[in-house]
Amino acid sequence: MKLPLFPLDTVLFPGCTLDLQLFEARYLDMISGCLKAGHGFGVVGLIKGSEVGLAASEYALTGCEALIRDWQQQSNGLLGIRVEGGRRFDVLTAQVQRDQLIVAEVDWRDEEDESPLGDEHADLAVLLEALGQHPLVETLGMGGPVQGQRALGYQLGYLLPFQPAQKLELLQLNDSPSRLQRIQGWLEQLQGEAVQ
Alpha helix (H) ranges present in the chain? Predict the structure, then answer.
């Protein structure tokens, strides 16, 4: 399937919410086309280059579909949209169009079935609920109780202050237990650094 790409300084995860403000003609046209066709676009993490101007010179080859959930004209005149992460994908090939919009042929990744949370996930579930108390997270409608390992891993991966390369690594992992173990390990590293 062909999917327009939006390289950003953030990594979007399935089931997570992202607010964007658009002003570049290529992305306004992209959103219009997506709304007319009834499909989303792809968010890929920016590795090299800028979110604005010429097409990104380097971006992650694994991304997340962005499904448009709401839009409105902002007081500053820009178009504001709210998207929700959909399916993960891998970029097979990509072309830069004349307007600098990147359109890619993508391969959708399979998602595992949701697995229930175990006792070993209790601390991570409490952490997610604590993050949900933050006003910014609350406005996104995230951080509430989750039903399984996949949702817990995706939301923590999205909300915690990990480096972009770490977030991309979490997005690329195909099983929830590994994703949660990686998050737990990085949190322990962060706590160890804070104590020193």
Answer: 25-37, 122-131, 135-139, 149-159, 164-172, 176-195
